[in-house]
Amino acid sequence: MKIRVLLYDVEKPEEWIESFIKSSPSFLPKPEFMVIKKGEKVECDETYPYLIVSKEPIKVNNCFSLWSEPDINKTIIKALELSYSKPLETVSRRTLLTGKKAIAFSKVPIVDESLCLSKFGCTRCQDSCPKKAISIIEGKVNIDPKACDLCGLCVSSCPKGAITLTLPTWSAIAFISNFIRQKRIEKVSIGCDESSDIVVNSLNAIGFEELVVLISTGAKVEFRCEKEKEMISKLNEIISNLYNNVHNLLLTELIGVKRKDYVRTVNNIKLDVDFGRNIFDLKVNDNCTVCGACMYRCPEGAIRVEYNNDGAFLYFNPQNCVGCNRCVKICAEKAIELVEVKETSKLFIDKELKFKDEAVRCKRCGRVFDNKRHLLKVAGLLNMNEEELMYCPECRAQLTANKILESFKNKK
After folding, report:
1. Is 287 helix (H, G, I), strand (E, B) or coil?
2. DSSP letters of 55-85?
């Protein structure tokens, strides 16, 4: 999103703008700049996000904006947060005639339906909400603005980044982390006051994934929020433990996709702790027939079934799994349980054998065509002897055809 940077009483504004442009990363859309002298009125066009740069904070009514002191790096961090924000689009009296959309801070979290897995049965945001403001109706997330207090717990509970506050979004956190690493910035602050480098409505919106990617830059992370001192204490404890377990700094660029960025970071920095979040394990019991229904229905490709001459094998990829429980709900055999675990080492694995069954070979041609448990299940459903099903589809078709021809011959 293109933003406007408004410079109020900034010394040597032309030089400042030149320095800003030279220091800006390639993933920051080039903003428009406006220079206002001291004493002049500061106004905003409500169709644009504004970054107001001045020595002291300035409040402007009906303006979707953040404030920054004139420090170049701090301003770029705020510019990234604004550029990748998700404001609410509305119509005001001013924009009604122009046909443009006014933008503002949303009073409820915003859901990206293209990422959301509620249509597959995921309820993680709903389960996390202490105010019961979130409901899922016909696979769609609904948020009650009267009940929601923008605490941000739903944001940190979503492994996909499908639900977010207006700012900061996951993309903003990822690209800010890239910039911090590029510039080797030593310290970054997160808080609910406008002097913080990264501004949040509530520190609850900063989940484990956000903390991991920020500490992977090597910068010291500080928290500021007078109304959330208890939360700051908890976050400081987590951050301290994370620093003690980081063995490498992240060397690759984050791409702004939450799950991929999280997994990539954990693997790059070799983070091995037992207090991780949004990590899942698949438990499979002996009811499994390796039918493949879970594989075909998994929206993230976290389950794979492979057949070969040695049998049928069900593999699980913890890196892809986001805990939507689709596999659990779809399994007719009640063979699957999905559990959340804390060990980040689980994310080092991309293929884990969870179940195997012996192969069944065609009695006629010897080709492997099924697995034992599945064949027994089918035999039970059809009330047939398993021996009758011990032929591959091609041989079964030929045998059936031969029987039909034989019956015709007998009639003659």
Report:
1. coil
2. SS----TT--EEEE-S-HHHHHHHHHHHHT-
Please provide residue 256's backbone torsions phi and psi, each rounded to the nearest 5 degrees.
Answer: 90, 15
pLDDT of residue 97: 67
H-type alpha helices, 227-276: 229-245, 258-268
pLDDT class of 408 with cuts at 50, 70, 90: confident
Query: Is domain 279-357 in CATH 3.30.70.3270, yes or no?
Result: yes
CA distance 111 to 86: 10
Return the structure tokens found at 135.
Answer: 């409901």
**Mean pLDDT of the 106-130 span:** 96
Please tell me the distance from the alpha carbon of residue 133 to that of residue 23, in angstroms, as a whole number.
42
Q: CA 352, CA 384: separation in Å to the nearest integer?
A: 35
How many other C-beta atoms are found inside a 10 Å radius of the C-beta of residue 226?
A: 9
Of residues 122, 101, 100, the one with CA closest to residue 111: 122
Q: What are phi and psi of 336, to 5 degrees?
A: -115, 140
Strand ranges for 55-186 from DSSP E = 65-68, 88-90, 102-104, 110-111, 134-137, 140-143, 163-164
Q: What angle do CA 91, 96, 101 make, to 5 degrees?
A: 45
What is the H or E stretch that residue 358 is in?
none
Q: For residue 403, what pLDDT band results from cuts at 50, 70 and 90?
A: confident
pTM: 0.91
Pairing outcome for strands 163-164 and 187-191? unpaired
pLDDT in tens, 240-269: 999 999 878 888 899 999 999 999 999 999
What's the mean pLDDT in 346-360?
97
Provide the residue ranges of all domains of the chain, joining segments of one domain with +. 1-106, 279-357, 361-411
Instruction: Enter the tokens of residue 90.
Output: 């509305």
pLDDT for 252: 85
Q: Map residue 374 onto helix, strand or coil.
A: helix
Distance CA 290, CA 277 (A): 29
Do residues 339 and 284 touch, judged by C-beta distance below 8 A? Answer: no
Cβ pair 1, 83 in contact under 8 A: yes
pLDDT, residue 250, reads 83
Buried b / exposed e over 284-323, threshold 16 CB at 10 Å, is beeebbbbbbbbeebbbebbbbbbeeebbbbbbbbbbbbb
